[in-house]
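anyone seen this seq b4? input:
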Amino acid sequence: MALEKVLLAKPRGFCAGVVRAVDIVNIALDVYDKPLYVRKEIVHNRHVVEELRAKGAVFVDTLLEVPSGATVVFSAHGVAPEVRENAKAKNLRVIDAACPLVTKVHLEAVKYAREGYTIILIGHKGHEEVIGTMGEAPRHMALISALAMKCLTSTRRTQLELPI
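predicted toks r here
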């Protein structure tokens, strides 16, 4: 049977990690005093972010915007160790809403870096997941953009030199 048509639902649902992260912010809004700070957008969805903002979540780009001693939620995208260290230095109450699969990738990066591997990460420079993952083993990791990877895989012969 040949595939004739694919229908793409809009809006599409969220993965379990995103649902978990949004649930964590909602629960934290019920449990902790406001304002509740959320580092970066909890998920890439304007409607969800606006709904949480209306309930009292304050979205910030950096921890410099969060007062010492406040409560902050880390997004589903995970954070680099440096961010956790900065939160500790500011005596912040941290709620980590990182997707468990993102956390698994971070742990794998640390494991393979300790074993001496060079890790090639395919992703988008500047994206929170990439920043967080690269922060786990920066001296053992090289980033290749998804577009570059597409170009590499579309050619018959490829020679790749990485500055590591």
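The radius of gyration is 19 Å. The mean pLDDT is 88. kinda curious what u guys think
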